[in-house]
From TrEMBL:
Belongs to the cyclic nucleotide phosphodiesterase class-III family. It is an enzyme of class 3 (hydrolase). Its EC number is 3.1.4.53. The keyword Iron applies. CDD domains: MPP_GpdQ. InterPro entries: Calcineurin-like_PHP (IPR004843), CNP_phosphodiesterase-III (IPR050884), GpdQ/CpdA-like (IPR026575), Metallo-depent_PP-like (IPR029052). It comes from Pseudomonas xantholysinigenes. GO terms for molecular function: 3',5'-cyclic-AMP phosphodiesterase activity; metal ion binding. This is 3',5'-cyclic-AMP phosphodiesterase. Keywords: Hydrolase, Iron, Metal-binding. NCBIfam families: PRK11148.1.
Length: 267
Protein backbone atom coordinates (compact mmCIF):
# COMPACT_ATOMS: atom_id res chain seq x y z
CA UNK A 1 0.00 0.00 0.00
CA UNK A 2 1.43 3.43 -0.87
CA UNK A 3 2.68 5.53 2.02
CA UNK A 4 1.87 9.22 2.55
CA UNK A 5 4.30 11.48 0.66
CA UNK A 6 7.29 12.55 2.70
CA UNK A 7 6.56 16.01 4.11
CA UNK A 8 9.15 18.55 5.24
CA UNK A 9 10.28 18.25 8.83
CA UNK A 10 8.62 18.22 11.24
CA UNK A 11 5.86 15.76 10.40
CA UNK A 12 2.49 17.16 11.55
CA UNK A 13 0.30 14.48 13.17
CA UNK A 14 -3.14 14.71 14.77
CA UNK A 15 -4.67 12.03 17.02
CA UNK A 16 -8.42 11.54 17.42
CA UNK A 17 -9.61 8.85 19.77
CA UNK A 18 -12.68 7.35 21.46
CA UNK A 19 -15.39 8.96 19.36
CA UNK A 20 -17.99 6.31 20.28
CA UNK A 21 -20.24 7.00 17.30
CA UNK A 22 -23.55 5.21 16.82
CA UNK A 23 -25.45 4.17 13.74
CA UNK A 24 -28.10 6.61 14.97
CA UNK A 25 -26.90 10.14 14.10
CA UNK A 26 -28.21 11.42 17.44
CA UNK A 27 -26.82 8.55 19.50
CA UNK A 28 -25.53 9.75 22.86
CA UNK A 29 -23.58 8.83 25.99
CA UNK A 30 -24.82 10.42 29.21
CA UNK A 31 -26.91 12.71 27.05
CA UNK A 32 -23.91 13.88 24.98
CA UNK A 33 -24.42 13.38 21.24
CA UNK A 34 -21.16 11.85 20.12
CA UNK A 35 -21.35 12.94 16.49
CA UNK A 36 -21.97 16.50 17.64
CA UNK A 37 -18.94 16.52 19.93
CA UNK A 38 -16.74 14.92 17.27
CA UNK A 39 -17.86 17.59 14.81
CA UNK A 40 -16.82 20.34 17.20
CA UNK A 41 -13.43 18.73 17.76
CA UNK A 42 -12.89 18.43 14.01
CA UNK A 43 -13.80 22.09 13.59
CA UNK A 44 -11.22 22.95 16.27
CA UNK A 45 -8.60 20.89 14.45
CA UNK A 46 -9.37 22.68 11.19
CA UNK A 47 -8.93 26.07 12.82
CA UNK A 48 -5.69 25.18 14.60
CA UNK A 49 -3.97 22.66 12.32
CA UNK A 50 -3.84 23.96 8.75
CA UNK A 51 -1.35 21.24 7.86
CA UNK A 52 -1.89 17.59 8.82
CA UNK A 53 0.42 14.99 7.34
CA UNK A 54 -1.16 12.02 9.13
CA UNK A 55 -4.32 11.46 11.19
CA UNK A 56 -4.12 8.70 13.83
CA UNK A 57 -7.44 7.30 15.08
CA UNK A 58 -6.72 5.10 18.06
CA UNK A 59 -9.81 3.05 18.74
CA UNK A 60 -13.39 3.09 19.99
CA UNK A 61 -14.32 4.98 16.88
CA UNK A 62 -17.73 3.36 17.27
CA UNK A 63 -19.91 2.53 20.26
CA UNK A 64 -22.08 -0.05 18.48
CA UNK A 65 -19.58 -1.37 15.88
CA UNK A 66 -22.05 -0.65 13.07
CA UNK A 67 -21.19 -0.06 9.44
CA UNK A 68 -23.07 3.25 9.59
CA UNK A 69 -21.00 4.50 12.54
CA UNK A 70 -17.69 3.78 10.79
CA UNK A 71 -18.94 5.35 7.58
CA UNK A 72 -19.89 8.44 9.58
CA UNK A 73 -16.46 8.60 11.24
CA UNK A 74 -14.72 8.19 7.88
CA UNK A 75 -16.86 10.86 6.23
CA UNK A 76 -16.57 13.34 9.09
CA UNK A 77 -12.78 13.09 9.27
CA UNK A 78 -12.27 13.29 5.51
CA UNK A 79 -12.77 17.06 5.71
CA UNK A 80 -9.33 17.24 7.36
CA UNK A 81 -7.80 16.20 4.04
CA UNK A 82 -5.15 13.97 5.61
CA UNK A 83 -4.16 10.32 5.20
CA UNK A 84 -5.62 8.34 8.10
CA UNK A 85 -4.73 5.23 10.07
CA UNK A 86 -7.25 3.40 12.27
CA UNK A 87 -6.88 0.77 14.94
CA UNK A 88 -9.66 -0.97 16.90
CA UNK A 89 -10.61 -0.46 20.53
CA UNK A 90 -12.70 -2.59 22.84
CA UNK A 91 -15.99 -1.20 21.46
CA UNK A 92 -14.93 -1.76 17.85
CA UNK A 93 -15.12 -4.76 15.58
CA UNK A 94 -12.05 -4.96 13.36
CA UNK A 95 -13.86 -6.94 10.66
CA UNK A 96 -16.52 -4.25 10.31
CA UNK A 97 -13.87 -1.53 10.25
CA UNK A 98 -12.08 -3.43 7.51
CA UNK A 99 -15.29 -3.71 5.53
CA UNK A 100 -15.74 0.09 5.60
CA UNK A 101 -12.13 1.28 5.26
CA UNK A 102 -9.65 -1.56 4.68
CA UNK A 103 -6.99 0.82 3.38
CA UNK A 104 -6.87 2.61 6.76
CA UNK A 105 -6.06 -0.47 8.87
CA UNK A 106 -2.37 -0.47 8.14
CA UNK A 107 0.14 -1.53 10.77
CA UNK A 108 3.22 0.33 9.55
CA UNK A 109 3.41 3.80 8.04
CA UNK A 110 6.71 5.44 7.14
CA UNK A 111 6.54 9.21 6.96
CA UNK A 112 9.45 11.62 7.04
CA UNK A 113 12.12 10.34 9.38
CA UNK A 114 9.57 8.32 11.36
CA UNK A 115 7.88 4.93 11.38
CA UNK A 116 4.38 4.78 12.90
CA UNK A 117 3.33 1.36 14.22
CA UNK A 118 -0.38 0.73 14.91
CA UNK A 119 -1.03 -2.28 17.18
CA UNK A 120 -4.38 -3.99 17.74
CA UNK A 121 -4.81 -4.53 21.49
CA UNK A 122 -8.55 -5.33 21.35
CA UNK A 123 -9.84 -8.66 22.66
CA UNK A 124 -13.15 -9.90 21.26
CA UNK A 125 -15.84 -9.72 23.93
CA UNK A 126 -13.57 -8.08 26.53
CA UNK A 127 -12.98 -4.56 27.79
CA UNK A 128 -9.34 -5.11 28.74
CA UNK A 129 -6.57 -5.20 26.16
CA UNK A 130 -3.99 -7.78 25.14
CA UNK A 131 -1.39 -7.81 22.41
CA UNK A 132 -1.71 -11.25 20.84
CA UNK A 133 1.36 -13.11 19.61
CA UNK A 134 0.80 -12.01 16.01
CA UNK A 135 0.79 -8.36 17.09
CA UNK A 136 4.03 -8.80 19.02
CA UNK A 137 5.60 -10.42 15.96
CA UNK A 138 4.42 -7.50 13.81
CA UNK A 139 5.93 -5.11 16.34
CA UNK A 140 9.27 -6.93 16.38
CA UNK A 141 9.40 -6.94 12.60
CA UNK A 142 8.43 -3.28 12.34
CA UNK A 143 11.04 -2.13 14.84
CA UNK A 144 13.81 -4.39 13.56
CA UNK A 145 13.15 -3.18 10.02
CA UNK A 146 12.91 0.52 10.83
CA UNK A 147 16.46 1.22 9.76
CA UNK A 148 17.40 4.75 10.71
CA UNK A 149 13.83 5.85 11.34
CA UNK A 150 12.54 6.92 14.72
CA UNK A 151 9.42 5.11 15.90
CA UNK A 152 6.05 6.06 17.37
CA UNK A 153 4.07 3.05 18.61
CA UNK A 154 0.28 3.30 19.04
CA UNK A 155 -2.35 1.06 20.64
CA UNK A 156 -5.74 1.53 22.28
CA UNK A 157 -5.34 0.31 25.87
CA UNK A 158 -3.20 2.01 28.49
CA UNK A 159 0.11 0.23 29.22
CA UNK A 160 0.84 2.05 32.51
CA UNK A 161 -0.91 2.83 35.78
CA UNK A 162 -2.61 6.23 35.45
CA UNK A 163 -3.85 6.44 39.05
CA UNK A 164 -7.49 5.56 38.29
CA UNK A 165 -8.24 2.41 40.28
CA UNK A 166 -11.39 1.50 38.36
CA UNK A 167 -9.71 1.62 34.96
CA UNK A 168 -6.59 -0.36 35.90
CA UNK A 169 -8.19 -3.80 35.31
CA UNK A 170 -9.24 -2.84 31.79
CA UNK A 171 -5.81 -1.75 30.62
CA UNK A 172 -3.25 -3.70 28.60
CA UNK A 173 -2.82 -7.07 30.32
CA UNK A 174 0.62 -7.82 28.87
CA UNK A 175 2.00 -4.29 29.14
CA UNK A 176 5.25 -5.55 30.69
CA UNK A 177 5.92 -7.66 27.62
CA UNK A 178 5.34 -4.68 25.36
CA UNK A 179 7.51 -2.31 27.39
CA UNK A 180 10.34 -4.83 27.63
CA UNK A 181 10.38 -5.09 23.85
CA UNK A 182 10.32 -1.33 23.37
CA UNK A 183 13.26 -0.83 25.71
CA UNK A 184 15.38 -2.86 23.30
CA UNK A 185 14.86 -0.29 20.57
CA UNK A 186 16.17 3.17 21.48
CA UNK A 187 14.68 4.55 18.26
CA UNK A 188 11.22 4.20 19.85
CA UNK A 189 10.58 7.71 21.09
CA UNK A 190 6.94 7.51 22.18
CA UNK A 191 4.02 5.24 22.97
CA UNK A 192 0.58 6.72 22.24
CA UNK A 193 -2.85 5.39 23.20
CA UNK A 194 -6.53 6.22 23.84
CA UNK A 195 -9.10 4.39 26.02
CA UNK A 196 -8.70 6.45 29.20
CA UNK A 197 -10.65 9.53 28.01
CA UNK A 198 -8.15 11.92 29.58
CA UNK A 199 -4.76 13.47 28.96
CA UNK A 200 -1.56 11.70 30.03
CA UNK A 201 2.02 12.79 29.38
CA UNK A 202 5.11 11.46 31.10
CA UNK A 203 8.65 10.39 30.26
CA UNK A 204 10.07 7.06 31.41
CA UNK A 205 13.60 5.95 30.57
CA UNK A 206 13.77 8.46 27.75
CA UNK A 207 10.47 7.37 26.14
CA UNK A 208 7.35 9.56 26.06
CA UNK A 209 4.06 8.03 27.25
CA UNK A 210 1.01 9.83 25.89
CA UNK A 211 -2.77 9.51 26.06
CA UNK A 212 -5.42 11.81 24.73
CA UNK A 213 -8.90 13.06 25.68
CA UNK A 214 -11.89 11.50 24.01
CA UNK A 215 -13.79 13.40 21.35
CA UNK A 216 -16.89 12.82 23.53
CA UNK A 217 -17.17 12.35 27.32
CA UNK A 218 -14.15 12.61 29.62
CA UNK A 219 -13.17 10.45 32.60
CA UNK A 220 -12.13 12.22 35.79
CA UNK A 221 -8.40 11.83 36.53
CA UNK A 222 -7.24 10.07 39.71
CA UNK A 223 -10.68 8.61 40.44
CA UNK A 224 -11.12 5.46 42.49
CA UNK A 225 -14.51 4.60 40.98
CA UNK A 226 -16.03 5.36 37.59
CA UNK A 227 -16.43 9.12 37.38
CA UNK A 228 -16.81 11.48 34.46
CA UNK A 229 -15.53 15.00 34.09
CA UNK A 230 -17.24 17.96 32.45
CA UNK A 231 -14.05 18.93 30.63
CA UNK A 232 -14.50 19.56 26.94
CA UNK A 233 -13.63 16.96 24.30
CA UNK A 234 -10.32 17.31 22.54
CA UNK A 235 -7.50 16.02 20.37
CA UNK A 236 -3.72 15.75 20.40
CA UNK A 237 -1.26 17.27 17.95
CA UNK A 238 2.30 16.02 17.47
CA UNK A 239 5.35 17.37 15.67
CA UNK A 240 7.83 14.64 14.75
CA UNK A 241 11.24 16.14 14.00
CA UNK A 242 13.87 14.51 11.84
CA UNK A 243 16.34 14.42 14.74
CA UNK A 244 13.98 12.29 16.88
CA UNK A 245 12.53 15.13 18.92
CA UNK A 246 8.80 15.09 19.57
CA UNK A 247 6.64 18.07 20.45
CA UNK A 248 3.02 17.55 21.43
CA UNK A 249 0.03 19.09 23.11
CA UNK A 250 -3.68 18.67 23.73
CA UNK A 251 -6.34 21.12 22.58
CA UNK A 252 -10.01 21.07 23.45
CA UNK A 253 -13.15 22.13 21.61
CA UNK A 254 -13.59 25.39 23.46
CA UNK A 255 -16.91 26.24 21.79
CA UNK A 256 -18.57 22.95 22.78
CA UNK A 257 -20.84 23.16 25.80
CA UNK A 258 -20.70 19.97 27.86
CA UNK A 259 -24.05 19.18 29.42
CA UNK A 260 -24.32 15.66 30.81
CA UNK A 261 -27.50 13.82 31.76
CA UNK A 262 -26.68 11.35 34.50
CA UNK A 263 -30.18 9.87 34.33
CA UNK A 264 -29.61 8.75 30.73
CA UNK A 265 -27.98 5.43 29.75
CA UNK A 266 -24.38 5.39 30.92
CA UNK A 267 -21.09 4.84 29.18
Amino acid sequence: MPQPPNPPSPVHVVQLTDAHLFADPVGSLLGLKTRDSLGHVIDQVRREQPRIDLLLCTGDLSQDASVASYEAFRDMTQVLGAPSRWLPGNHDEAQVMAKVAPELLQTVTDIGAWRIVMLDSAVVGATFGLLADDQLVLLDQALAGAGGRYCLVCCHHQPVDIGCAWIAPIGLRNADELLQRLRGYPQVKALLWGHIHQEWDEVRDGMRFLATPSTCIQFAPRSEDFKVSEEQPGYRWLRLHDDGRLETGVERARDFEVSLDFDSPGY
